[in-house]
């Protein structure tokens, strides 16, 4: 989505060409990859829980399902953004979209940490790990923005 926003800053005819291409790419990504993946992952998750229902008695699984719920909320928020692009507007800055892109990464890391580190000590390391990954991602985004501005990568 951020490329769509960055295309807004270009002069015509580059702006129209890029926005049309990004809209097409976004549509393909959303309906050919993202939605089918979400549906298949949900089907397989439900199937797995039917085969292993005792996992629902574990605290780590309940917490993981909470993170999966957050991932679904993230997915729906991205659907709202997609709908805005489809209507020709998106009301976010490029940098805020770059940060928003990393939210899914953090949620997915949390899910993996919960599955791998199920003990209490593991959870402590997991929380520290998630916070550490979050901080590193945010620092990386800020560093990338500084380098981009310094080197004028946005200029042709």
Automatic annotation (TrEMBL):
GO cellular component entries: plasma membrane
Regions crossing the membrane: 29-55, 61-78, 99-117, 123-144
Coiled coil: none
Localization per Swiss-Prot or TrEMBL: Cell membrane
Annotated pathway: Porphyrin-containing compound metabolism
InterPro entries attached to this UniProt entry: HemJ-like
Required cofactor(s): heme b
Membrane-topology annotation of the record: Multi-pass membrane protein
Any one Gene Ontology molecular-function term assigned to this protein's record: metal ion binding
Record's protein name: Protoporphyrinogen IX oxidase
């Amino acid at each position: 989505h951020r490329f769509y926003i960055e295309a807004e800053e270009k002069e015509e005819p580059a702006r129209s060409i890029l926005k049309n291409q990004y809209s097409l790419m976004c549509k393909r990504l959303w309906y050919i990859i993202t939605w089918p993946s979400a549906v298949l992952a949900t089907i397989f998750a439900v199937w797995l829980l039917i085969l292993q229902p005792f996992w629902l008695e574990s605290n780590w699984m309940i917490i993981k399902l909470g993170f999966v719920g957050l991932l679904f909320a993230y997915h729906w928020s991205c659907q709202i953004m997609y709908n805005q692009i489809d209507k020709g507007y998106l009301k976010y800055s490029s940098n805020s979209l770059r940060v928003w892109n990393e939210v899914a990464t953090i949620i997915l890391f949390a899910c993996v940490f919960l599955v791998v580190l199920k003990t209490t000590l593991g959870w402590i390391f997991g929380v520290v790990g998630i916070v550490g990954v979050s901080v590193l991602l945010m620092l990386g985004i800020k560093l990338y923005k500084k380098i981009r501005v310094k080197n004028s990568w946005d200029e042709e």
